[in-house]
Specification:
By secondary structure, this protein is an alpha/beta fold. The chain contains five helices and six strands. The longest helix is centred in the C-terminal third of the chain and has 36 residues.
């Protein structure tokens, strides 16, 4: 699905807003509310607003599929936001531009990042999309906490058989 991708500061200037009015964090993409059902094949109800984990993960990347960035879907009533526009943070647009630059051939144009971007839901399995979203999160603290948690769970799973063997041997000695 093709969208025109613009930075939040450019969108704010073009539509007469202050940058604070179009507040988009680095890990979010601001899109028109009608795009949620089109991307995720389900509706976003009023009850879901208080449950941010039900918001979808949007995968935004190059049209040739080489690189991508996962962003949290966000919708807000902003004047000038139409169904064909996706608004991202300036730093996120820089990350996307770097991905596109890395996929350009020798004779390709380098002046338009947004011509080469494609937006899609982050896979049918939202669990894998959510996992990769936090694994590659733009915020260092969120990314580090998630990766440490994954490493902790993996080490705990590796240590579990040894712990069970140790407990069995201790209890069998105590019974004798």
């Amino acid at each position: 699905m093709e969208f025109r991708v613009v930075s939040h500061s450019k969108f704010a200037v073009d539509h007469g807003h202050k940058c604070e009015e179009v507040a988009v964090r680095e890990h979010e993409v601001l899109m028109h509310a009608s795009r949620y059902e089109l991307l995720f094949k389900r509706t976003f109800t009023r009850d879901d607003r208080a449950q941010p984990w039900k918001r979808g993960i949007v995968k935004m990347g190059c049209a040739n599929g080489v690189g991508s960035v996962r962003l949290l879907y966000r919708s807000a009533p902003v004047k000038g936001l139409d169904a064909g526009t996706a608004v991202v943070h300036d730093r996120t647009l820089n990350r996307l531009a770097a991905l596109v630059e890395g996929t350009l051939g020798e004779g390709d144009r380098r002046d338009s990042t947004t011509d080469r971007l494609r937006v899609m839901a982050a896979g049918d399995a939202q669990i894998s999309g959510r996992f990769l979203f936090y694994w590659d999160h733009p915020d260092d603290q969120a990314r580090a906490a998630f990766k440490l948690g994954v490493v902790g769970v993996a080490l705990g799973a590796l240590a579990l058989p040894g712990t069970i063997d140790l407990l069995v041997s201790v209890f069998t000695r105590a019974v004798r």
